[in-house]
Amino acid sequence: MSKKERFFFFGFGQSAKYFVNHLLNSRKKFIFASTNTKKTKNIYFKKKKFTSYKFKDNLFDKNLIKVLLNSHYILISIPPQKNQDVVLKNFAKLLKNSNIKKIIYLSATSVYGNHNGRWVNEKSKLKGKTYLGSRRKKTEKLWINFRKKSKKDISILRVSGIYSKEKNVLKKISKSNILVKEKKYFSRIRVEDLARIIHRVFLVKERSLILNASDDKPSTNTEVAYYAAKLLKIKKLNEVPISSFKNRMMKEFYKDSKKVSNKKMKNKLGIKLRYPTYKEGLNSIFRKSI
Questions:
Q1: Rounded to two decimals, what is the model's pTM?
Q2: Per residue in 131-145, pLDDT tens?
């Protein structure tokens, strides 16, 4: 990347913030802007000043257009809304006619749906039928169609369950001591590794990739929860069946079971994960919290 690379983030949540933090730690010279759903404002992140432009549904601050057109790299983390992608709905023509170098759309591994605990990779059938999985699947298709028409360099990252120092199973079970008893396989990714993956996709010469962003060890939530309990020296967890929960989204989440392969991601990007399994990831969080 050249000096003063310009980034634009549609959405400035956990993934984008950790990506910016990664750039700061790597001492890259860059500037960035983002969107939020409330109002345009100048704010600071880790002492770095940037502008966050209002963008909600079909309403947005017109001043963001010039900033967007002058950006080199775009990261989109806004989830689908009503089977639509709000970025494409509002900015497809602008993006098509721009000189933007690369766009990354953050999707989710929910597009794969239920594979009964078997391994899936980027060529696997997309069976996503849940509320979130079906929306992600439709939105990916929109971006792929746009990529074909616009000839733009647009990569899709199918992200597994993100955990971090702020949001993790250690905090959950220390508060509730509840374990959902289900033998379903899920994949995860520590947010710092996701930030490095995003950066590498922006850097790599290969165009328009579809990659899974997952760690090396898909596991059941039961296995992960008991490992966390061991670190916390919690002797017993209260096992509760998913059928006892009223939350629809949680019940849908446990309909799927799959092991997400990260082989293509590691081969294409030449990346070595700092937290290859939940054990390294949780151990690091636990040690720093003592």
A1: 0.96
A2: 999 999 999 999 999
